[in-house]
Write a structure and sequence with these properties.
heterotetramer; A alpha+beta (286); B alpha+beta (90); C alpha+beta (158); D alpha+beta (753); A: 286 residues; alpha+beta; Uridine Diphospho-n-acetylenolpyruvylglucosamine Reductase, domain 3; Enolase-like, domain 1; 2 domains; four-stranded antiparallel beta sheet; 34% helix; 26% strand; C: 158 residues; Ubiquitin-like (UB roll); DNA polymerase, domain 1; five-stranded mixed beta sheet
Amino acid sequence: MRYEAPVSLEAASALLAEAPAQSFVLAGGTDLLVRMKGGFVEPELIVDIKHIPDLQELRLDKDGFVIGAAVPCAALGENVELSAQWPGVVEAANLIGSKQIQGRCTIVGNLCNASPAADSVPALVTAAAKVRIRGRKGTRTVAIETIPVGPGKTSLAKGEFIEAVLLEKRRPRSADAYLRFIPRSEMDIAVVSAGVDLERDKAGVITKARVALGAVAPTVMLVEAAAAAIIGSKLEDKALTALAEACSAACQPINDKRGTVEFRTKVAGVLARRAAQIAYQRAGER
Amino acid sequence: MIGTKPQGERVRVTLWGSLRSAAEGRDTVEVEAATIRELFSRLGKSYPGLKPFIDRGIAVSINGQIFRDSWSQSIPKGAEVYLLPRIAGG
Amino acid sequence: MPAVHVTTTVNGDRLDYVCESDETLLDCLRDRLGLTGAKEGCGTGDCGACSIILDGRLVCSCLVLGVEAENREIETVEGLAEGDNLHPLQRKFLEHAALQCGICTPGILMAAKALLDRNPSPTEEEIRFGLAGNLCRCTGYDKIVRAVQDAAKELQGA
Amino acid sequence: MPLDVKPDLKREFDVVGTRPLRPDGIDKVTGRARFGADATAPGMLVGRILRSPHAHARIRGIDTSKAEQLAGVKAIITRDDLPDHSNGDRATYDILYNCMAREKALYEGHAVAAVAAVSAAVARQALKLIEVDYEVLPHVTDVDAAMKPDAPVIHDDIFTEGVEPKPDKPSNVARRSEFGHGDVEAGFREADVVISRSYKTEATHQGYIEPHACLASVSPDGSGELWVCTQGHFMIRNVSSQVLGMEISRLRVTASEIGGGFGGKTHVWMEPIALALSRKANRPVKVVMSRDEVFKATGPTSSTSIDVKIGAKKDGTIVAAEAILRYQGGAFIGSWADLGAMTAFACYDLRNVRTVGYDVIVNRPKTAAYRAPSAPMAAFAVESTVDELAHKLGLEPIDFRIRNAAREGTRSSYGPTYGPIGIGATLSAAKNHPHMSAPLGNNQGRGMACGFWFNFGGQTCTSLNINLDGTIALSVGTPDIGGSRASMCLMAAEELGIPYEKVRCVVADTSSLGYNDVTDGSRVTFSSGMATILAARDAIKKLCGRAAQMWGISEEAVIWEKGYAKPAGPNAGEFPPLSLKEIAAAAATTGGPIAGHHEFNADGAGVSFATHIVDVEVDRETGATRILRYTVLQDAGKAVHPAYVEGQFQGGAAQGIGWALNEEYVYGEDGRLQNAGFLDYRIPVCSDLPMIDTVILEIPNPKHPYGVRGVGETSIVPPLAAIANAVSNAVGVRMTHIPMSPPRILKALEGRS
C-alpha cells in the first residue's frame, strides 16, 4: 500500500487524478482504518490530506464559516463562534464516536463515508451547508445533500475530493438542533436521528424551517412536509404532532441489528419534535 | 468381598431427578458406606446404571455441604446425603 | 511498497522505527518500539484500551497509521510518571482500587489525563462522558470516577 | 483428615480487613504489567486461524498446497495434524473438536485450519490461499427451534439422557434433568393466586477487554513452554497435553497477567493450536485472537427459554413453584440447564417445587461459564414472577421475599438442607436501607431481586518461603484477576504476625507448584486464602522448632505470637522473644531453608446470597431505560480487602445491567453472528452508570479460618430481574425478553396502551 502526504492542494488532486481504483483520502481515518482492519478494503494508495495548510483551517470570513476537510470534530466544539452560531451542527459533530474518535474524525470524512446513520450530515443538511470540491480542473461548490447517493457511495467523480464545508452566518432569530437515538449514552452509531433548523419572526411565528432525518433511508432525508408542518406556527402541540407524523410518514427504514422499522419510524417523529422545540427555544434567545 | 472392611453405616442417598431413570426409577437408595469412596463403589455395583454418571464426575452433599472430589470424606451416621451434578464455576 | 522509516517523539524521547505503510501506530508502539502499555482490545476504536495522546489530542492508536507519527508528539502511559514518582492519577487509581485486571487502565489513565489537562475540575458527569470511550468490564467504573475526582482535587492543590 | 479451620469468631484482625495498596498495582498503572499479547520470543512466528464462514457444513476436503508455497509460511495445520488421543472420553474429544473442526464445521467461526508465518501479513495472505471444500448443511441457532421435531439434528450420536424409555433416535436435546420435592400439582390446587409466564434471554459474552492470546514454544524433543492469559494455567497444561498426546511434565505453562475472564477463560480455545503450530514449525508461535474471533469462537452464555409457574396463598405463602428451563449450550454437550434448574428457586423455602432442565445443542460456539453460569437467566424468570405475584397479593416485594426466603434447615430446591445462610440478613438489610424508601419521580420505578450461587473450594496448592531477611515469598497457583494477591498477602501477614509489606505474592507457573484448579467458582480468596493460612501455620511450627533449637529447649515449650517465637510453659526458661527476622537470619545454622506448604482439596465454601435494589427512569416515547441508583447487599463472611470485595459487587452489577438492557448475540437467518464487535455488542460505558453503592455483610463462614466466603459471582444474578421489576414499576409493562432494549420496551408500551 502506498502512503502519500502531499502539502498542497494541487499535489493532492494530481495524486488522486491518476490514482488506481482502490485509493482513498485519509483525514481522521476513523472509518477507513476500521474497514481496512475488517478486510473490507485493501487500499493501493492512501492520500493523507492533513499536511495541507488550507485544509487545517476553520475560519469565519465575510460570507460565513469555512471548515477545512482536515479539521477534527473536537476542534469544532472548541470554536466559540461556531458553537454559538451553529449549536446543532456542533452537537452532531461532537456525538460521533468517543473523545478519542473526536480527536481525529472530520465532518467531511463522516460525509464521504456515506453511512445512512452519519451523525453530522442531517445537521449540515438542515443548515443548508455547501461543500467545495477540488478536482483536476479546479473547484466547484454544491449543496451538501447531493454528496451521499447511497450506503457507502458518494457523487464525487474520480480524482475529486472535498476541500471544505461552507456554512453561512447565522441569520437573526434562527437556530438549529440535532438529536439522535442510541441505546447507550455514548459510543454508538445513531439508530435514528433528526436535525431541525428554523427561523422565527419577532412574534415567534416560524417563517423558515428545514428538517432532516438520519438512518431511516439509504441517505439522509430532507423532509419538506415536516418543515411545512411547523412553518406559520409557534410550535403548538398541533404543529408538533403534524411534524412528528410527517417525519414518520417519510421514513423508509430497515430492520437491522440496531433497530426495527416500527422503532425508527416512531422515534424519528419523537426526535424531530424534541429537536424542533430546542431549536425554537434557542432561536428565541437570538 | 474377601477381607471386608468393618461395615459402614447404612446410608440413605437421595438422587436428583435425571438419575432416577438410571436407578430403576427410585429417588432414594440405601447402601452401606463410611466414606464417599465406598459410597460410589457400592452404588456402582448395586445400580450399574449409575456407574457412567459417577465416572463422569458427581458431587455429593453431606448435611448441606457439597463435596466435589474429596472421596475420603467420611459420612456421619444418619447424615442427609444427596447426589448432585458436578458444578462448574464462572 | 517498501517499509517506511519514521522518526517521532514518544514521551519526550526521539525514536525511530521502520514499519509497513498499512501498519497501525498501536502495532508500531508495541511491536517496533516494545512499548506494550497501550493494549489492543478491539482494533476498531470501540474500546479505548489503545488510547494515547497525539499532539495533545486523545486518540485511539489503533485508528492511526504508524507512518502518520512522523514528527509528531506521542504520550503513552509509560511516560506518565516522572522518574520514580507516579502521576497523581496513577497513585489515586491504586489508592481507590480503581482497577482490577488492569487491561483497560493504561487507556483510561491517558483519557483521564487528557480530560484533566483541558478541564482541571470536572463534574462527575463530565468525568463519565470524558471516559465514555474507554470500556472497563471489571469495575463498573465507580472507583475509577472517584479516583479521577480525587486526583483532580490534588492537582488543583485543594 | 479434618483440619482445624474453625474460625475464632472473637478474633480481632490486625491487617485483614484493611485497604492497603495491592502489591502488583504499580506495574498495572505504569504499563509494565505483561498480559497475554505482550510477550515475544526470538524467532517468533505469527499464528492465524482460518474459521468456517458457515454455521453448519461438512468439510469434504482442505487443500493447503497453494498456501504451503507462499514465501514466509512455516507451518500449516488442519484436523489431520491433530490425531484423536481422547480414547473414548467424550469431554476431551469435544475439546479437540472445538479447537479445530474435524468432520463438520459446527458454528460460524469454528477453526478449520491454522498457519504460522514470519509476519501477520503473510499469515493473512496464506489463509486466503487455503481452499476448503464445504458441503453447507441446514443449521439451527434458536434453542426452541432446535427442540422441534423437524429441526436439523447436529450430532447423529447424541441421544437424550435422563429420559425413560431410552430414546433410539438422535436429538439436539442432549440431556433432561429434574430437581425438586413435594407435590406441585397439589400445591397449585391449594393456591389462591397462580401466575405462570414464559421468558426468553439472549446469549451474552463475558466481554473481557483482553482478547485471548498465547505464545507457544515446543522443541523437537517434545518439551514445551506456553505463556497464556487464562484463569487456570494448570488446566491449560493438563488439557493441552491430553489433546496433543503430550506427557504433562513436558509442558510448562506460565499464566500472564489476565485482562479479565469472568469464566470465559476457564477453558482451552486456541492454545493447543499454537502448540501444534510451534511443534511443526520448530519455532515459537504467537496467536492473538481478534475481537471478532473472541465473539464468534470463544464461550458466550446460553440463550434460554424458561416457563415459570408459582402459586401462593392469600397470606403470602408460596405453596407451589415450577420451572421448565431450556438452555442451548452451543454445538457441544453442556450441563448449563442443570445449573439453571438447580439455582432457579434456591432462594426460597418451598413445600412443593419442581424444576426441569433441557440442555440443547445448536450451531453456536461452545458455551462457557459466565460468572455464576446459568443462574442470572433462571433468576430473571423466577424473580420477575415472584415480583408480579407479590403485587397481585398486595404485598411489598421485599416482605413477600422475607416471608418465603430460605433459612437454616430449609430443604433447598436442588435437594440438600441448608446450614446457616445469609439471604435473610441481606433481605432485612435491604428492607432497612435508605434506598428502599427514597422518593421517586414520574416514569421512575424501583425494583429488587435476590440472587443465589454455589461457591466452591477445589484443588489448591500453595508454598510460603521465608527469605534470609525475614520477608516472605508466597507462591499461589490461582491466577489473580481482581486483586486477590493483595488478599493473599494480608492473610499471610496476619497469620505470621508481620507487616503486610513484608509479603510478596506471585502466581507461580506449573513447574513451581502442585496442581491448582482454575480460578472460578469465587474460590480464590476462600481456597488459596485458606491454603496460605495453613501454609503459614506450617511455617510457624517450623519457626518455633528452630527457635527451640536456638534456645536449646523442647519445641513444645515454644509459642508464636504476633511475629515472635516466645518460650512458654512451666520449664521453658527465660529467653527474649525471637523475631521471624532473627530466626530467618539463623536458618542455615538451624537446619536450612524454612518454608510452609499446604496442598488440599478445599471444601466448605458454602453458598452465597445477594439482594439488589435499583431505580430506573424509562423514556416512554423511545423506550430507553436509564439506571438512576443501584445498591448491592451481599454476604462476604469476612471482607479480607474490602475495596476488592466492593469491586466484585460493582463489577457483577455492571455486567448484569449490560445484560439486562443492551447486550445480546444477534444472529441472521444465515446462522452468522451480526454484531461481533464492541460497536454493536454494547457493554455499559462509563456515562451509562451511576455510582454503585455496596453493603458488605459479614456472617462468618464456619468452614474457613477467617470466616471468608467467596463473593466473585453472585452479584451478576439479581440485576436482570431487579431491572425488569423496576421497569414494570416505572411504566407498568412486564418485560419477558432479555435484553430489555428500547425497541422491545417501546413495543410493549404501545401494546399496552
